[in-house]
Each structure stands twice: as structure tokens, then as C-alpha cells.
């Protein structure tokens, strides 16, 4: 049985509760869901800005390449105008690959230094890793407006929201995953390692580009994906392995991989066998990288929020693991 324990702080915070919506990827498919997300956040005391973009669209995207890139580049001036704020992605999909070269990374990094906190997941992984690579600044792999705050049932929404507040507003992070870890044979204690990653397809896609984080050896890489059969997941993991990325990490945290369908062809082949194969190959190559399962993150209703590029501590054994922000 899997369970998650978390220390949650709901005390008031001096951080201004201003959310600026941005749509760098796919167009909104459900306007009502996005509006429900806005209503929910307003009920929590947030001021929600830039909602007129909900109707913006071009083909499958939330606007033209130039419109979407300009919106990201405008975040610096928005922080100057409104002060410290949260830039919350409306949804993921696809689109950031087309505009990475149009982003003013130095200016975006300065906006983060001035109080901008970027939040999202899925396709937003590209923006987060590009920011980390170009500037070393952090961002937050977490919920998005439409699905997470507008489309979830209350218990899932409350869980996701509380972790969002804990990480983004209070800047704390401390979770414990209680779940049998088949690939852990002894207790492990990792201190002050950079946690980074996100959507596996995007992480793999950025390898060899200027947007892939540099010099993150001995880090903790977290991964998730959706609609990818285990053989596709294995293929992407092999690229990261052969590129020297997996073996350079102290630990790999695997989140949710779902919405794929196994067939008779698989004959017992599964995500678990994929992880076992990768772990075996890491060991054969003399790498001590730890493989951990069941991180509550990904395209799932109940998700934690992770500060990408921050330093964390990790303690793990065969019964589970704990991750906490380094002091």
C-alpha cells in the first residue's frame, strides 16, 4: 500500500498573492474549466491577471509563436509593474520547442531574481530547464490553472493546492513517500543535491541543445510522462543513460507514468521491468545511481510541487523515502 505523508504549513505569508496567467503551449480546450480555476484561486485570496489570453489561439497553439514568446518576455515588465508574482501556466500540450530561441533568457532570469515564480509542468519542463541552463534560476514543477485548479474534485484539488502553497508561497518542501522500493538494497542519505527534471519526453528532447542544464552532476533527477508505452519510456531512458546523464545522478525519482495500454505482445513486459533493466545496466557500468518509484508527481490529480534547481536532502530505504529542502 502506498501513502504520502507531508508537513504542510498554511500560515499567512508576506509574499504577494498575485497570479499572472500565461499560455506558452497548447490552446485551452475547456474555457469553463479555466474560469473555474480562476474562481478557485480568487476564493483563496489571489488576484488573477491576464485572463483575456484564454481565448487566444492559432492552430493547436495558444497563439502564434511570436505572441507566446512575447508573453514570456513580458514577464519582466509585469513584475516591475505588479511586484513579486506567480506566473501560472494555463496548460501544457506542445509549443515551447518552437519558441525557445525567441525567449530573452537573461531578462527572464532577472525577473525571477525580482520575485517571479514560474509554475507548471508537462510542456513547461522545456521553459524550466531552459531557465536553469541559461541563468541558474529556479522555477516550480507543479499544477496548472485549467486542469489542476479548475477540473479536479475537492480532495485532489486541496492536496495539490496545499503543496503548491507550501513550495511556492512558503518556500518549504518536505514529503515522505511510504512505498516498497524494489530497487533499494540499503539505506541511503543524500545531502544538498540539486533536484531537476520534469516530463521525460521534454528532458530527452533537450539533450544536446543549449537549453539542457549544464554541470548537474550528482543531482537528483525526477521524471514523469503520459501516454507513453513502457517501451517508449525505456527508449528515452536509454538515450539519457548512453548520454551519461542517468549515471551522473545520485538518484532518479520516477513519478507517474500512465494512460498507456499493454497488449498481448508485451508478455509481462512492464514499466517495472523497464526500471529493473535500466538499474541493472547502471550497476554494470559501475554507477551507484539510486532508482526510486512512486513520486507523487505528473499528470495525476494529486501532485506535489517541486522547486526545479533547488537543493534537497534525500533519505531512502526499502520502505520508502523522504525528500526535504536543504536549509
From TrEMBL:
Tagged with keyword Membrane: no
Boundaries of every LD-carboxypeptidase N-terminal domain copy: 19-142
Domain of life: Bacteria
GO biological process terms held by the UniProt record: proteolysis
UniProt keyword terms in alphabetical order: Carboxypeptidase, Hydrolase, Protease, Serine protease
Limits of the LD-carboxypeptidase C-terminal domain: 194-314
InterPro entries given in the database record: Carboxypeptidase_A_C_sf, Class_I_gatase-like, LdcA_N, Peptidase_S66_N, Peptidase_S66C, S66_fam
Gene Ontology molecular function: any one: carboxypeptidase activity
Family assignment from sequence similarity: Belongs to the peptidase S66 family.
Name of the protein in question: Muramoyltetrapeptide carboxypeptidase
Species of origin: Polynucleobacter kasalickyi
Amino acid at each position: 500500500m502506498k501513502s504520502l505523508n507531508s508537513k504542510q504549513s498554511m500560515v499567512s505569508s508576506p509574499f504577494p498573492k498575485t497570479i499572472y496567467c500565461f499560455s506558452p503551449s497548447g490552446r485551452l480546450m475547456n474555457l469553463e474549466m479555466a474560469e473555474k480555476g480562476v474562481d478557485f484561486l480568487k476564493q483563496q485570496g489571489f488576484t488573477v491577471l491576464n485572463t483575456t489570453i484564454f481565448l487566444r489561439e492559432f492552430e493547436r497553439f495558444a497563439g502564434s509563436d511570436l505572441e507566446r514568446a512575447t508573453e514570456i518576455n513580458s514577464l519582466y515588465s509585469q513584475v516591475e509593474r505588479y511586484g513579486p508574482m506567480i506566473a501560472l501556466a494555463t496548460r501544457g500540450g506542445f509549443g515551447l520547442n518552437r519558441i525557445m530561441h525567441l525567449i530573452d533568457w537573461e531578462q527572464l532570469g532577472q525577473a525571477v531574481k525580482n520575485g517571479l515564480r514560474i509554475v507548471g509542468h508537462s510542456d513547461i519542463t522545456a521553459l524550466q530547464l531552459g531557465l536553469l541552463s541559461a541563468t541558474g534560476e529556479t522555477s516550480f514543477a507543479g499544477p496548472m490553472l485549467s486542469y489542476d485548479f479548475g477540473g479536479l474534485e475537492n480532495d485532489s484539488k486541496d492536496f495539490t493546492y496545499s503543496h503548491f502553497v507550501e513550495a511556492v508561497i512558503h518556500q518549504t518542501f518536505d514529503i515522505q513517500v511510504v512505498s516498497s522500493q524494489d530497487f533499494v538494497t540499503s539505506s541511503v542519505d543524500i545531502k544538498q543535491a540539486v533536484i531537476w527534471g520534469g516530463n521525460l519526453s521534454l528532458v530527452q528532447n533537450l539533450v544536446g541543445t543549449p537549453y539542457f542544464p549544464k554541470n548537474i552532476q550528482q543531482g537528483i533527477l525526477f521524471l514523469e510522462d503520459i501516454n507513453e508505452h513502457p517501451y517508449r519510456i525505456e527508449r528515452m531512458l536509454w538515450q539519457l543513460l548512453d548520454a551519461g546523464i542517468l549515471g551522473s545522478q545520485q538518484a532518479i525519482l520516477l513519478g507517474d507514468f500512465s494512460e498507456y495500454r499493454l497488449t498481448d505482445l508485451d508478455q509481462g513486459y512492464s514499466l517495472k521491468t523497464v526500471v529493473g533493466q535500466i538499474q541493472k545496466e547502471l550497476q554494470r557500468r559501475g554507477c551507484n545511481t539510486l532508482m526510486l518509484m512512486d513520486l507523487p508527481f505528473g499528470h495525476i490529480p494529486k501532485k506535489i510541487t517541486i522547486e526545479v534547481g533547488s537543493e534537497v536532502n534525500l533519505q531512502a530505504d526499502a520502505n520508502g523515502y523522504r525528500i526535504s529542502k536543504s536549509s
